[in-house]
Amino acid sequence: MRIDLHTHSTASDGTDTPAELVRNAAAAGLDVVALTDHDTTRGHVEATAALPAGLTLVTGAELSCRVDGVSMHMLAYLFDPEEPALLAERELVRDNRVPRAQGMVARLNELGVPVTWEQVRRIAGDGSVGRPHVATALVELGVVATVSDAFTPEWLADGGRAFVEKHETDPFEAIRLVKAAGGVTVFAHPGASKRGRTVPEATIAEMAAAGLDGIEVEHMDHDPDTRARLRGLARELGLLVTGSSDYHGSRKTCVLGEYTTDPEVYGEITRRATGAFPVPGTGGA
To answer: How far is CA 28 from CA 18, 32, 210, 257, in A?
Structure first.
């Protein structure tokens, strides 16, 4: 089985619609794909309706978190999307995205960059607006060559010249909320140091004690030494180890199935979940 547990659609900051994403996942030879848009489950209905035969969909979301001043992302799988407390927290994070992005546009204007809110809104479309959409605007204007080049201290990285903070969930609270909604939690790309400061291993150990299920090890932002270190940490803490593409369509260079999760780990994730269940494809719309 080929299992990719971290992808994004136009419901957040990917460039494939949810329907296109599942069709592309099947074409890439995947057996299982998780749709984990940022702080939203809006793409799940469309993805489910279009799900090709032979492909299983894992519903999820990537939750925006912050601990001790460090931003981090928490992958949440197979939770009840209507559970009131978790739904309210996701909406709080999403509602903060617009004023945050508008603030980044204002800071860029102060730096002499002629980006406009209308441009960013057009790029975001129906998705939850975020930094990648502002970064894409910088690419369109020729300020940077790629989206990744915008995530530097010069521009949009944490603490960068045009960075604006947003509401982010405490990860211990995120673990509690997801668990209460019957879901499973995996710390996304914990060693992605090129994105900025990373969460200390001592804090990851505290999260494990609080119920964190796993860490994402196989990821494009982890070099071989980082993967080896994280695998050792997972063994020490009794955490599951996942691998994923973090696919965003054409917005990033990663491809579907570039990194995958072991079938036994996937099986354990589905065994632990009680809020929702994987959806087998029946042919799609």
So the answer is: 15, 11, 36, 7
How many CB atoms lie under 10 A from the CB of residue 173? 15
Q: For the chain, report the end-to-end CA distance as a whole number of angstroms.
A: 24
Angle CA 238–239–241, to nearest 5: 135
Place of tokens 């509690």: 176
Q: pLDDT grade, residue 285 (50/70/90)?
A: low
For residue 134, the cross-strand partners are none
Residue 268: Cβ-neighbour burial (10 angstroms; 0-12, 13-18, 19+): middle
169: left (phi over 0), alpha (psi -120 to 50) or beta: beta
- Residues of the chain above pLDDT 70, percent: 99
User: What is the token pair recorded at 95?
Assistant: 């509602």
Among 59, 70, 68, which residue's Cα sits nearest to residue 37? 59
- In the DSSP assignment, the letter for residue 8 is -
Q: In one letter, which amino acid is 50? A: A
Residue 157 predicted with pLDDT over 60:
yes
